[in-house]
Automatic annotation (TrEMBL), chain A:
<dbReference type="GO" id="GO:0055085">
    <property type="term" value="P:transmembrane transport"/>
</dbReference>
<dbReference type="InterPro" id="IPR035906">
    <property type="entry name" value="MetI-like_sf"/>
</dbReference>
<dbReference type="Pfam" id="PF00528">
    <property type="entry name" value="BPD_transp_1"/>
</dbReference>
<dbReference type="InterPro" id="IPR000515">
    <property type="entry name" value="MetI-like"/>
</dbReference>
<feature type="transmembrane region" description="Helical">
    <location>
        <begin position="83"/>
        <end position="105"/>
    </location>
</feature>
<keyword id="KW-1003">Cell membrane</keyword>
<keyword id="KW-0812">Transmembrane</keyword>
<keyword id="KW-0472">Membrane</keyword>
<keyword id="KW-1133">Transmembrane helix</keyword>
<protein>
    <submittedName>
        <fullName>Sugar ABC transporter permease</fullName>
    </submittedName>
</protein>
<feature type="transmembrane region" description="Helical">
    <location>
        <begin position="212"/>
        <end position="230"/>
    </location>
</feature>
<feature type="domain" description="ABC transmembrane type-1">
    <location>
        <begin position="79"/>
        <end position="292"/>
    </location>
</feature>
<dbReference type="GO" id="GO:0005886">
    <property type="term" value="C:plasma membrane"/>
</dbReference>
<comment type="similarity">
    <text>Belongs to the binding-protein-dependent transport system permease family.</text>
</comment>
<feature type="transmembrane region" description="Helical">
    <location>
        <begin position="274"/>
        <end position="296"/>
    </location>
</feature>
<keyword id="KW-0813">Transport</keyword>
<feature type="transmembrane region" description="Helical">
    <location>
        <begin position="112"/>
        <end position="133"/>
    </location>
</feature>
Length: 306, 259
Protein backbone atom coordinates (compact mmCIF):
# COMPACT_ATOMS: atom_id res chain seq x y z
CA UNK A 1 0.00 0.00 0.00
CA UNK A 2 2.76 2.41 0.88
CA UNK A 3 4.29 2.14 -2.59
CA UNK A 4 0.89 2.85 -4.11
CA UNK A 5 0.44 5.94 -1.95
CA UNK A 6 3.95 7.02 -2.90
CA UNK A 7 3.16 6.48 -6.58
CA UNK A 8 0.02 8.59 -6.39
CA UNK A 9 2.09 11.49 -5.03
CA UNK A 10 4.36 11.49 -8.12
CA UNK A 11 3.61 14.03 -10.86
CA UNK A 12 1.22 12.74 -13.55
CA UNK A 13 3.77 12.69 -16.39
CA UNK A 14 6.15 10.53 -14.33
CA UNK A 15 3.34 8.16 -13.36
CA UNK A 16 2.33 7.91 -17.01
CA UNK A 17 5.89 7.04 -18.05
CA UNK A 18 6.18 4.41 -15.31
CA UNK A 19 2.84 2.91 -16.33
CA UNK A 20 3.84 2.58 -19.99
CA UNK A 21 7.22 1.16 -18.98
CA UNK A 22 5.51 -1.50 -16.86
CA UNK A 23 3.25 -2.44 -19.78
CA UNK A 24 6.11 -2.57 -22.26
CA UNK A 25 8.89 -4.17 -20.26
CA UNK A 26 7.76 -7.86 -20.15
CA UNK A 27 7.59 -8.30 -23.92
CA UNK A 28 10.84 -6.43 -24.45
CA UNK A 29 12.68 -8.50 -21.84
CA UNK A 30 11.18 -11.70 -23.27
CA UNK A 31 12.16 -10.97 -26.86
CA UNK A 32 15.65 -9.85 -25.83
CA UNK A 33 16.22 -12.96 -23.70
CA UNK A 34 14.67 -15.64 -25.91
CA UNK A 35 14.89 -14.01 -29.36
CA UNK A 36 17.92 -11.75 -29.48
CA UNK A 37 19.92 -13.83 -26.98
CA UNK A 38 20.11 -16.95 -29.18
CA UNK A 39 21.00 -14.81 -32.21
CA UNK A 40 23.93 -13.31 -30.30
CA UNK A 41 24.93 -16.76 -29.12
CA UNK A 42 24.76 -17.98 -32.73
CA UNK A 43 27.20 -15.25 -33.73
CA UNK A 44 29.52 -16.43 -30.93
CA UNK A 45 29.22 -20.12 -31.93
CA UNK A 46 30.05 -19.29 -35.54
CA UNK A 47 33.54 -18.26 -34.42
CA UNK A 48 34.30 -21.74 -33.11
CA UNK A 49 35.02 -25.11 -34.58
CA UNK A 50 32.24 -26.70 -32.57
CA UNK A 51 30.60 -30.05 -33.23
CA UNK A 52 28.20 -31.70 -30.81
CA UNK A 53 29.69 -35.03 -31.77
CA UNK A 54 33.07 -33.94 -30.35
CA UNK A 55 32.14 -31.12 -27.95
CA UNK A 56 35.50 -31.38 -26.16
CA UNK A 57 37.39 -30.48 -29.33
CA UNK A 58 35.70 -27.08 -29.49
CA UNK A 59 38.19 -24.32 -30.27
CA UNK A 60 38.23 -20.73 -31.49
CA UNK A 61 38.75 -20.31 -35.24
CA UNK A 62 37.76 -16.66 -35.73
CA UNK A 63 36.20 -16.17 -39.13
CA UNK A 64 37.44 -19.59 -40.24
CA UNK A 65 33.92 -21.01 -40.59
CA UNK A 66 32.93 -18.19 -42.93
CA UNK A 67 36.08 -18.59 -45.01
CA UNK A 68 35.42 -22.34 -45.24
CA UNK A 69 31.83 -21.69 -46.34
CA UNK A 70 32.74 -19.47 -49.26
CA UNK A 71 35.37 -21.97 -50.35
CA UNK A 72 32.75 -24.73 -50.21
CA UNK A 73 31.07 -25.52 -53.54
CA UNK A 74 27.90 -26.85 -51.86
CA UNK A 75 27.44 -23.53 -50.00
CA UNK A 76 27.89 -21.49 -53.18
CA UNK A 77 25.42 -23.82 -54.90
CA UNK A 78 22.89 -23.35 -52.08
CA UNK A 79 23.34 -19.57 -52.14
CA UNK A 80 22.79 -19.50 -55.90
CA UNK A 81 19.72 -21.78 -55.62
CA UNK A 82 18.26 -19.55 -52.89
CA UNK A 83 18.74 -16.41 -54.99
CA UNK A 84 17.33 -18.03 -58.16
CA UNK A 85 14.39 -19.51 -56.25
CA UNK A 86 13.49 -16.26 -54.44
CA UNK A 87 13.95 -14.10 -57.54
CA UNK A 88 11.88 -16.33 -59.83
CA UNK A 89 9.16 -17.07 -57.27
CA UNK A 90 8.67 -13.46 -56.17
CA UNK A 91 8.71 -12.06 -59.74
CA UNK A 92 6.09 -14.55 -60.95
CA UNK A 93 3.99 -14.20 -57.80
CA UNK A 94 4.03 -10.44 -58.28
CA UNK A 95 2.85 -10.66 -61.89
CA UNK A 96 0.03 -13.10 -61.12
CA UNK A 97 -0.77 -11.43 -57.79
CA UNK A 98 -1.20 -8.01 -59.40
CA UNK A 99 -3.50 -9.48 -62.04
CA UNK A 100 -5.52 -11.21 -59.36
CA UNK A 101 -5.72 -8.04 -57.25
CA UNK A 102 -7.02 -6.05 -60.26
CA UNK A 103 -9.67 -8.73 -60.88
CA UNK A 104 -10.73 -8.55 -57.23
CA UNK A 105 -10.69 -4.75 -57.04
CA UNK A 106 -14.40 -4.16 -57.64
CA UNK A 107 -16.28 -4.66 -54.37
CA UNK A 108 -18.97 -7.27 -54.89
CA UNK A 109 -20.37 -10.14 -52.89
CA UNK A 110 -18.82 -12.62 -55.34
CA UNK A 111 -15.37 -11.02 -55.04
CA UNK A 112 -15.56 -11.13 -51.25
CA UNK A 113 -16.27 -14.87 -51.35
CA UNK A 114 -13.38 -15.39 -53.78
CA UNK A 115 -11.13 -13.39 -51.47
CA UNK A 116 -12.04 -15.55 -48.48
CA UNK A 117 -11.47 -18.76 -50.47
CA UNK A 118 -8.09 -17.51 -51.67
CA UNK A 119 -6.95 -17.65 -48.05
CA UNK A 120 -6.97 -21.46 -48.24
CA UNK A 121 -3.50 -21.91 -49.84
CA UNK A 122 -2.07 -19.33 -47.41
CA UNK A 123 -3.42 -21.12 -44.33
CA UNK A 124 -2.84 -24.76 -45.28
CA UNK A 125 0.13 -26.09 -43.28
CA UNK A 126 3.21 -25.44 -45.49
CA UNK A 127 4.49 -28.94 -44.82
CA UNK A 128 1.19 -30.32 -46.19
CA UNK A 129 1.52 -28.15 -49.31
CA UNK A 130 4.80 -29.89 -50.10
CA UNK A 131 3.23 -33.30 -49.52
CA UNK A 132 0.19 -32.48 -51.70
CA UNK A 133 2.36 -31.59 -54.68
CA UNK A 134 4.69 -34.50 -54.06
CA UNK A 135 1.65 -36.76 -54.35
CA UNK A 136 0.18 -35.04 -57.40
CA UNK A 137 3.49 -34.99 -59.28
CA UNK A 138 4.56 -38.53 -58.40
CA UNK A 139 5.42 -40.09 -61.82
CA UNK A 140 3.95 -43.58 -61.27
CA UNK A 141 0.56 -42.94 -59.67
CA UNK A 142 0.23 -39.15 -59.32
CA UNK A 143 -2.80 -37.41 -60.85
CA UNK A 144 -0.59 -34.97 -62.76
CA UNK A 145 2.81 -36.63 -62.64
CA UNK A 146 1.63 -39.84 -64.31
CA UNK A 147 0.36 -38.04 -67.40
CA UNK A 148 3.39 -35.75 -67.64
CA UNK A 149 5.69 -38.78 -67.62
CA UNK A 150 3.32 -40.75 -69.89
CA UNK A 151 3.26 -38.06 -72.58
CA UNK A 152 6.99 -37.47 -72.24
CA UNK A 153 6.56 -33.95 -70.88
CA UNK A 154 8.64 -34.71 -67.84
CA UNK A 155 11.59 -36.87 -66.96
CA UNK A 156 10.57 -40.49 -66.10
CA UNK A 157 11.62 -39.66 -62.51
CA UNK A 158 9.01 -36.91 -62.38
CA UNK A 159 9.33 -33.12 -62.32
CA UNK A 160 10.74 -33.14 -58.78
CA UNK A 161 13.10 -36.05 -59.44
CA UNK A 162 15.05 -34.54 -62.34
CA UNK A 163 17.87 -32.07 -61.71
CA UNK A 164 16.85 -29.68 -64.50
CA UNK A 165 13.19 -29.30 -63.48
CA UNK A 166 13.15 -29.71 -59.69
CA UNK A 167 13.95 -26.11 -58.70
CA UNK A 168 11.47 -24.71 -61.25
CA UNK A 169 8.80 -27.07 -59.90
CA UNK A 170 9.43 -25.82 -56.36
CA UNK A 171 9.00 -22.27 -57.68
CA UNK A 172 5.61 -23.32 -59.10
CA UNK A 173 4.58 -24.80 -55.73
CA UNK A 174 5.61 -21.56 -54.03
CA UNK A 175 3.56 -19.59 -56.56
CA UNK A 176 0.48 -21.68 -55.78
CA UNK A 177 0.99 -21.18 -52.07
CA UNK A 178 1.82 -17.47 -51.87
CA UNK A 179 0.29 -15.66 -54.88
CA UNK A 180 -2.95 -15.09 -52.91
CA UNK A 181 -1.01 -13.35 -50.12
CA UNK A 182 0.72 -11.12 -52.67
CA UNK A 183 -2.70 -10.36 -54.22
CA UNK A 184 -4.16 -9.49 -50.79
CA UNK A 185 -1.44 -6.95 -49.97
CA UNK A 186 -1.68 -5.38 -53.45
CA UNK A 187 -5.47 -5.31 -53.21
CA UNK A 188 -5.23 -3.44 -49.90
CA UNK A 189 -2.98 -0.94 -51.70
CA UNK A 190 -5.48 -0.59 -54.56
CA UNK A 191 -8.37 0.02 -52.17
CA UNK A 192 -6.40 2.75 -50.39
CA UNK A 193 -5.82 4.73 -53.63
CA UNK A 194 -7.37 8.23 -53.57
CA UNK A 195 -10.74 8.00 -55.33
CA UNK A 196 -10.71 11.59 -56.63
CA UNK A 197 -7.45 11.06 -58.53
CA UNK A 198 -8.83 7.91 -60.17
CA UNK A 199 -12.05 9.71 -61.11
CA UNK A 200 -10.13 12.66 -62.52
CA UNK A 201 -8.08 10.28 -64.67
CA UNK A 202 -11.26 8.64 -65.98
CA UNK A 203 -12.81 12.04 -66.77
CA UNK A 204 -9.67 12.96 -68.72
CA UNK A 205 -10.69 10.38 -71.28
CA UNK A 206 -7.49 8.36 -70.96
CA UNK A 207 -7.60 4.68 -71.90
CA UNK A 208 -7.60 1.93 -69.31
CA UNK A 209 -4.01 0.98 -70.11
CA UNK A 210 -2.87 4.62 -69.88
CA UNK A 211 -4.57 4.99 -66.53
CA UNK A 212 -2.89 1.82 -65.27
CA UNK A 213 0.62 2.91 -66.28
CA UNK A 214 0.39 6.64 -65.57
CA UNK A 215 -1.86 6.81 -62.52
CA UNK A 216 -2.45 3.51 -60.75
CA UNK A 217 1.02 1.98 -60.91
CA UNK A 218 2.96 5.02 -59.59
CA UNK A 219 0.48 5.47 -56.73
CA UNK A 220 0.61 1.77 -55.94
CA UNK A 221 4.43 1.63 -55.76
CA UNK A 222 4.67 1.74 -51.92
CA UNK A 223 2.28 -1.24 -51.63
CA UNK A 224 4.14 -3.05 -54.42
CA UNK A 225 7.51 -2.68 -52.71
CA UNK A 226 5.99 -3.74 -49.41
CA UNK A 227 4.52 -6.91 -50.94
CA UNK A 228 7.83 -7.61 -52.68
CA UNK A 229 9.97 -7.22 -49.56
CA UNK A 230 7.71 -9.45 -47.46
CA UNK A 231 7.62 -12.20 -50.03
CA UNK A 232 11.34 -11.97 -50.88
CA UNK A 233 12.28 -12.37 -47.24
CA UNK A 234 9.95 -15.35 -46.83
CA UNK A 235 11.08 -16.99 -50.08
CA UNK A 236 14.70 -16.54 -49.02
CA UNK A 237 13.96 -18.63 -45.92
CA UNK A 238 11.98 -21.36 -47.73
CA UNK A 239 12.27 -24.70 -45.99
CA UNK A 240 9.12 -26.76 -45.38
CA UNK A 241 8.06 -27.38 -48.99
CA UNK A 242 11.60 -28.31 -50.06
CA UNK A 243 12.25 -30.49 -47.02
CA UNK A 244 9.33 -32.82 -47.75
CA UNK A 245 9.53 -32.88 -51.57
CA UNK A 246 13.18 -33.16 -52.56
CA UNK A 247 15.14 -32.71 -49.33
CA UNK A 248 17.61 -30.59 -51.32
CA UNK A 249 18.13 -33.19 -54.02
CA UNK A 250 18.48 -34.50 -56.63
CA UNK A 251 22.24 -33.96 -56.42
CA UNK A 252 21.89 -30.65 -54.59
CA UNK A 253 19.72 -29.13 -57.33
CA UNK A 254 17.26 -27.74 -54.75
CA UNK A 255 19.59 -27.22 -51.81
CA UNK A 256 18.90 -23.80 -50.31
CA UNK A 257 20.72 -21.98 -47.51
CA UNK A 258 18.02 -22.97 -45.05
CA UNK A 259 18.19 -26.66 -46.07
CA UNK A 260 21.98 -26.61 -45.84
CA UNK A 261 21.99 -24.97 -42.40
CA UNK A 262 19.44 -27.44 -41.02
CA UNK A 263 21.37 -30.40 -42.41
CA UNK A 264 24.71 -29.17 -41.06
CA UNK A 265 23.35 -28.14 -37.70
CA UNK A 266 20.54 -30.45 -36.73
CA UNK A 267 21.47 -33.60 -38.60
CA UNK A 268 25.28 -33.49 -38.53
CA UNK A 269 25.49 -31.33 -35.36
CA UNK A 270 28.18 -29.08 -36.83
CA UNK A 271 27.14 -26.04 -34.77
CA UNK A 272 29.95 -23.76 -35.95
CA UNK A 273 29.28 -24.16 -39.68
CA UNK A 274 25.49 -24.09 -39.30
CA UNK A 275 25.65 -20.89 -37.25
CA UNK A 276 27.87 -19.31 -39.89
CA UNK A 277 25.24 -20.13 -42.56
CA UNK A 278 22.46 -18.78 -40.34
CA UNK A 279 24.35 -15.52 -39.79
CA UNK A 280 25.10 -15.16 -43.49
CA UNK A 281 21.35 -15.46 -44.06
CA UNK A 282 20.63 -12.76 -41.45
CA UNK A 283 23.08 -10.46 -43.25
CA UNK A 284 21.47 -11.18 -46.64
CA UNK A 285 17.97 -10.57 -45.21
CA UNK A 286 19.06 -7.31 -43.58
CA UNK A 287 20.49 -6.24 -46.92
CA UNK A 288 17.25 -7.09 -48.75
CA UNK A 289 15.17 -5.30 -46.11
CA UNK A 290 17.21 -2.10 -46.12
CA UNK A 291 17.24 -1.98 -49.92
CA UNK A 292 13.45 -2.21 -50.00
CA UNK A 293 12.99 0.28 -47.14
CA UNK A 294 14.96 2.80 -49.22
CA UNK A 295 12.77 2.04 -52.25
CA UNK A 296 9.55 2.31 -50.20
CA UNK A 297 10.62 5.71 -48.80
CA UNK A 298 11.37 7.03 -52.31
CA UNK A 299 8.11 5.64 -53.69
CA UNK A 300 6.20 7.16 -50.78
CA UNK A 301 7.70 10.56 -51.48
CA UNK A 302 6.87 10.25 -55.20
CA UNK A 303 3.30 9.10 -54.54
CA UNK A 304 2.29 11.37 -51.67
CA UNK A 305 4.46 14.45 -51.49
CA UNK A 306 6.06 16.52 -54.15
CA UNK B 1 -12.33 -16.04 -65.06
CA UNK B 2 -12.03 -15.35 -61.36
CA UNK B 3 -13.97 -18.52 -60.56
CA UNK B 4 -11.52 -20.59 -62.63
CA UNK B 5 -8.53 -19.09 -60.83
CA UNK B 6 -10.06 -19.68 -57.41
CA UNK B 7 -10.82 -23.30 -58.39
CA UNK B 8 -7.18 -23.77 -59.42
CA UNK B 9 -6.10 -22.60 -55.99
CA UNK B 10 -8.53 -24.97 -54.25
CA UNK B 11 -8.10 -28.14 -56.35
CA UNK B 12 -4.84 -29.44 -54.81
CA UNK B 13 -6.34 -29.24 -51.31
CA UNK B 14 -9.54 -30.89 -52.55
CA UNK B 15 -7.41 -33.71 -53.96
CA UNK B 16 -5.75 -34.31 -50.60
CA UNK B 17 -9.10 -34.35 -48.81
CA UNK B 18 -10.54 -36.72 -51.44
CA UNK B 19 -7.69 -39.24 -51.10
CA UNK B 20 -8.85 -39.91 -47.54
CA UNK B 21 -11.95 -41.65 -48.95
CA UNK B 22 -10.03 -43.55 -51.59
CA UNK B 23 -9.48 -47.29 -51.00
CA UNK B 24 -5.82 -48.36 -51.06
CA UNK B 25 -6.37 -50.37 -54.27
CA UNK B 26 -7.64 -47.30 -56.16
CA UNK B 27 -4.56 -45.36 -55.05
CA UNK B 28 -2.21 -47.48 -57.14
CA UNK B 29 -3.93 -47.80 -60.46
CA UNK B 30 -2.03 -46.83 -63.54
CA UNK B 31 -3.25 -44.59 -65.10
CA UNK B 32 -4.65 -42.86 -62.00
CA UNK B 33 -8.44 -42.74 -61.82
CA UNK B 34 -10.79 -40.08 -60.56
CA UNK B 35 -13.56 -42.57 -59.86
CA UNK B 36 -13.62 -44.82 -56.81
CA UNK B 37 -15.96 -46.30 -54.25
CA UNK B 38 -15.55 -44.17 -51.12
CA UNK B 39 -14.38 -45.89 -47.95
CA UNK B 40 -13.63 -44.88 -44.37
CA UNK B 41 -10.74 -47.35 -44.04
CA UNK B 42 -8.13 -44.58 -43.93
CA UNK B 43 -9.78 -42.97 -40.93
CA UNK B 44 -9.76 -46.29 -39.08
CA UNK B 45 -6.11 -46.69 -40.02
CA UNK B 46 -4.94 -43.34 -38.60
CA UNK B 47 -6.79 -44.22 -35.40
CA UNK B 48 -4.51 -47.23 -34.95
CA UNK B 49 -1.30 -45.73 -36.40
CA UNK B 50 -1.36 -42.50 -34.42
CA UNK B 51 -2.17 -41.41 -30.93
CA UNK B 52 -4.59 -38.81 -32.29
CA UNK B 53 -5.68 -37.31 -28.94
CA UNK B 54 -2.02 -36.71 -28.06
CA UNK B 55 -1.31 -35.05 -31.43
CA UNK B 56 -4.36 -32.79 -31.16
CA UNK B 57 -3.54 -31.98 -27.54
CA UNK B 58 0.03 -30.95 -28.46
CA UNK B 59 -1.11 -28.82 -31.38
CA UNK B 60 -3.74 -27.10 -29.25
CA UNK B 61 -1.38 -26.60 -26.29
CA UNK B 62 1.30 -25.06 -28.48
CA UNK B 63 -0.95 -22.79 -30.54
CA UNK B 64 -3.28 -21.61 -27.79
CA UNK B 65 -0.50 -21.39 -25.19
CA UNK B 66 1.67 -19.27 -27.45
CA UNK B 67 -1.25 -17.09 -28.56
CA UNK B 68 -2.27 -16.36 -24.96
CA UNK B 69 1.29 -15.62 -23.83
CA UNK B 70 1.85 -13.42 -26.89
CA UNK B 71 -1.31 -11.42 -26.28
CA UNK B 72 -0.59 -11.14 -22.57
CA UNK B 73 2.83 -9.56 -23.01
CA UNK B 74 2.67 -8.31 -26.62
CA UNK B 75 -0.57 -6.32 -26.55
CA UNK B 76 0.39 -4.10 -23.57
CA UNK B 77 3.82 -3.56 -25.09
CA UNK B 78 2.44 -2.50 -28.48
CA UNK B 79 0.10 -0.12 -26.67
CA UNK B 80 2.92 1.34 -24.59
CA UNK B 81 5.12 1.84 -27.66
CA UNK B 82 2.31 3.55 -29.56
CA UNK B 83 1.50 5.92 -26.68
CA UNK B 84 5.04 6.60 -25.53
CA UNK B 85 6.52 9.97 -26.50
CA UNK B 86 10.07 8.66 -26.08
CA UNK B 87 12.23 8.66 -29.19
CA UNK B 88 13.21 5.09 -28.32
CA UNK B 89 9.70 3.81 -28.89
CA UNK B 90 9.91 3.69 -32.69
CA UNK B 91 13.35 2.03 -32.57
CA UNK B 92 12.01 -0.67 -30.23
CA UNK B 93 8.97 -1.18 -32.46
CA UNK B 94 11.34 -1.75 -35.40
CA UNK B 95 13.29 -4.23 -33.28
CA UNK B 96 10.08 -6.24 -32.91
CA UNK B 97 9.52 -6.04 -36.65
CA UNK B 98 13.12 -7.05 -37.32
CA UNK B 99 13.14 -10.08 -35.02
CA UNK B 100 10.49 -11.67 -37.24
CA UNK B 101 12.84 -11.64 -40.22
CA UNK B 102 15.55 -13.72 -38.51
CA UNK B 103 15.65 -17.17 -40.15
CA UNK B 104 14.54 -19.98 -37.84
CA UNK B 105 17.85 -21.90 -38.04
CA UNK B 106 19.79 -18.98 -36.65
CA UNK B 107 17.84 -19.07 -33.37
CA UNK B 108 16.97 -22.77 -33.36
CA UNK B 109 20.50 -24.10 -32.75
CA UNK B 110 21.38 -22.00 -29.68
CA UNK B 111 17.81 -22.40 -28.41
CA UNK B 112 18.03 -26.17 -28.86
CA UNK B 113 21.19 -26.26 -26.74
CA UNK B 114 19.61 -23.97 -24.14
CA UNK B 115 16.53 -26.19 -23.87
CA UNK B 116 18.77 -29.23 -23.55
CA UNK B 117 20.62 -27.58 -20.66
CA UNK B 118 17.46 -26.57 -18.78
CA UNK B 119 15.78 -29.92 -19.43
CA UNK B 120 12.87 -28.66 -21.51
CA UNK B 121 13.95 -30.41 -24.71
CA UNK B 122 11.19 -32.67 -25.99
CA UNK B 123 8.33 -30.73 -24.38
CA UNK B 124 5.61 -28.54 -25.84
CA UNK B 125 6.80 -25.80 -23.43
CA UNK B 126 10.01 -25.43 -25.44
CA UNK B 127 8.00 -24.89 -28.64
CA UNK B 128 5.69 -22.39 -26.91
CA UNK B 129 8.71 -20.43 -25.65
CA UNK B 130 10.35 -20.09 -29.08
CA UNK B 131 7.07 -19.58 -31.01
CA UNK B 132 6.14 -16.78 -28.61
CA UNK B 133 9.19 -14.75 -29.64
CA UNK B 134 7.83 -14.43 -33.18
CA UNK B 135 4.16 -14.30 -32.19
CA UNK B 136 4.70 -11.72 -29.46
CA UNK B 137 6.76 -9.61 -31.88
CA UNK B 138 3.88 -9.80 -34.35
CA UNK B 139 1.21 -8.95 -31.77
CA UNK B 140 3.30 -6.03 -30.49
CA UNK B 141 3.76 -4.59 -33.96
CA UNK B 142 0.08 -5.10 -34.78
CA UNK B 143 -1.08 -3.38 -31.56
CA UNK B 144 1.44 -0.63 -32.20
CA UNK B 145 -0.14 0.16 -35.57
CA UNK B 146 -3.75 -0.26 -34.38
CA UNK B 147 -3.27 2.01 -31.33
CA UNK B 148 -1.42 4.64 -33.35
CA UNK B 149 -4.53 4.90 -35.55
CA UNK B 150 -6.68 5.45 -32.45
CA UNK B 151 -7.30 9.12 -31.47
CA UNK B 152 -5.44 9.82 -28.17
CA UNK B 153 -8.25 12.24 -27.15
CA UNK B 154 -10.30 9.20 -26.10
CA UNK B 155 -7.73 8.25 -23.51
CA UNK B 156 -7.26 11.86 -22.36
CA UNK B 157 -11.01 12.35 -21.91
CA UNK B 158 -11.21 9.19 -19.77
CA UNK B 159 -8.33 10.42 -17.59
CA UNK B 160 -9.98 13.82 -17.15
CA UNK B 161 -13.15 12.03 -16.07
CA UNK B 162 -11.21 10.47 -13.23
CA UNK B 163 -10.24 7.16 -14.79
CA UNK B 164 -6.95 5.65 -13.60
CA UNK B 165 -4.18 5.06 -16.16
CA UNK B 166 -4.93 1.35 -16.01
CA UNK B 167 -8.68 1.92 -16.33
CA UNK B 168 -8.22 4.15 -19.38
CA UNK B 169 -6.07 1.46 -20.99
CA UNK B 170 -8.19 -1.55 -20.03
CA UNK B 171 -11.72 -0.17 -20.33
CA UNK B 172 -11.40 2.58 -22.95
CA UNK B 173 -8.52 1.97 -25.38
CA UNK B 174 -8.31 -1.82 -25.44
CA UNK B 175 -11.97 -2.43 -26.41
CA UNK B 176 -11.46 -0.04 -29.35
CA UNK B 177 -8.72 -2.23 -30.82
CA UNK B 178 -10.55 -5.52 -30.29
CA UNK B 179 -10.24 -6.45 -33.99
CA UNK B 180 -6.47 -6.03 -33.68
CA UNK B 181 -6.43 -8.42 -30.73
CA UNK B 182 -8.48 -10.98 -32.66
CA UNK B 183 -6.15 -10.65 -35.65
CA UNK B 184 -3.10 -11.02 -33.40
CA UNK B 185 -4.51 -14.16 -31.81
CA UNK B 186 -5.44 -15.53 -35.23
CA UNK B 187 -1.95 -15.03 -36.67
CA UNK B 188 -0.31 -16.52 -33.57
CA UNK B 189 -2.51 -19.62 -33.65
CA UNK B 190 -1.98 -20.02 -37.38
CA UNK B 191 1.79 -19.74 -37.11
CA UNK B 192 2.13 -22.14 -34.19
CA UNK B 193 -0.35 -24.68 -35.55
CA UNK B 194 1.46 -24.78 -38.90
CA UNK B 195 5.04 -24.53 -37.69
CA UNK B 196 7.10 -27.56 -38.57
CA UNK B 197 10.79 -26.72 -38.15
CA UNK B 198 10.79 -25.68 -34.48
CA UNK B 199 8.34 -28.39 -33.42
CA UNK B 200 10.09 -31.21 -35.25
CA UNK B 201 13.42 -30.59 -33.53
CA UNK B 202 12.15 -29.58 -30.11
CA UNK B 203 9.47 -32.23 -29.46
CA UNK B 204 9.58 -35.97 -28.89
CA UNK B 205 7.20 -38.73 -29.93
CA UNK B 206 4.78 -38.05 -27.07
CA UNK B 207 4.76 -34.26 -27.48
CA UNK B 208 4.83 -33.82 -31.25
CA UNK B 209 2.03 -31.81 -32.87
CA UNK B 210 -0.02 -32.61 -35.98
CA UNK B 211 2.25 -30.74 -38.42
CA UNK B 212 5.15 -33.01 -37.49
CA UNK B 213 2.97 -36.14 -37.69
CA UNK B 214 1.87 -35.19 -41.23
CA UNK B 215 5.36 -35.81 -42.56
CA UNK B 216 5.42 -39.32 -41.16
CA UNK B 217 1.97 -40.08 -42.63
CA UNK B 218 3.51 -40.75 -46.01
CA UNK B 219 6.08 -43.49 -46.29
CA UNK B 220 6.72 -44.33 -42.64
CA UNK B 221 3.91 -46.78 -41.97
CA UNK B 222 2.58 -47.35 -45.46
CA UNK B 223 3.05 -45.74 -48.84
CA UNK B 224 -0.51 -44.66 -49.49
CA UNK B 225 -1.71 -41.08 -49.57
CA UNK B 226 -4.92 -42.14 -47.87
CA UNK B 227 -3.56 -41.89 -44.34
CA UNK B 228 -2.16 -38.44 -45.11
CA UNK B 229 -5.56 -37.38 -46.46
CA UNK B 230 -7.31 -38.67 -43.37
CA UNK B 231 -4.83 -36.98 -41.05
CA UNK B 232 -5.23 -33.76 -43.06
CA UNK B 233 -8.88 -33.70 -41.98
CA UNK B 234 -7.70 -33.17 -38.42
CA UNK B 235 -4.62 -31.07 -39.18
CA UNK B 236 -5.84 -28.74 -41.94
CA UNK B 237 -9.61 -28.40 -41.93
CA UNK B 238 -10.03 -26.76 -38.48
CA UNK B 239 -7.37 -24.11 -39.05
CA UNK B 240 -8.46 -23.37 -42.64
CA UNK B 241 -12.12 -23.07 -41.62
CA UNK B 242 -11.20 -20.78 -38.74
CA UNK B 243 -9.23 -18.39 -40.95
CA UNK B 244 -11.79 -18.41 -43.78
CA UNK B 245 -14.61 -17.75 -41.30
CA UNK B 246 -12.66 -14.92 -39.65
CA UNK B 247 -11.26 -13.65 -42.97
CA UNK B 248 -12.32 -10.08 -42.17
CA UNK B 249 -10.00 -9.97 -39.14
CA UNK B 250 -7.27 -11.87 -40.97
CA UNK B 251 -7.17 -9.48 -43.94
CA UNK B 252 -7.53 -6.42 -41.69
CA UNK B 253 -4.64 -7.61 -39.54
CA UNK B 254 -2.54 -8.44 -42.56
CA UNK B 255 -2.97 -4.95 -43.97
CA UNK B 256 -2.27 -3.21 -40.67
CA UNK B 257 0.31 -5.66 -39.39
CA UNK B 258 2.68 -5.40 -42.30
CA UNK B 259 2.76 -1.61 -42.62
Amino acid sequence: MSTLRLASRLPFETRRKLFLLTLGAPALVYVLAIGVGPVAQGVWYSLFDYSLIHPARRHFVGLGNYAALFADASFRNALLNTIVFSGAAVALEFATGLGLALLLWRDSRFNQICLALLLVPVTVTPIAVGLIFKGLLEPDFGMIGYWLAHWGWSDPRGLLGATHTSLATLVLIDIWEWTPLMALILLAGLKALPVDVLEAATADGSTLLQRFWMVILPLLLPAIFLALVLRTMDAFRVFDSIYVTTGGGPAGATDTLMMLAVKRGLQFFDIGAASAIGNTMILCLALIASLFVLLIRRADRLANGR
Amino acid sequence: MLATIVTLFLLPVAWLIATAYKPAAAMFTSPPTFLFVPTLDNFRKIGTLYDLPSLVRSSLTISIGSALLSLLIGAPCGYALARSRSRWALAIAYLFLGIRTVPAVATLLPFYLLMRDVGLLGTTAAVILIDTVLNCAFVTWMMFSYVRALPPELNEAALTDGCTLWGAFWRVDLPCVRSGLVAGALFSILFSWNDFLYASFLTRLDSKPLAVALVTAYGTYDISWGTLGALAHVALIPIVLMVVALNRFFIGGLVRGVH
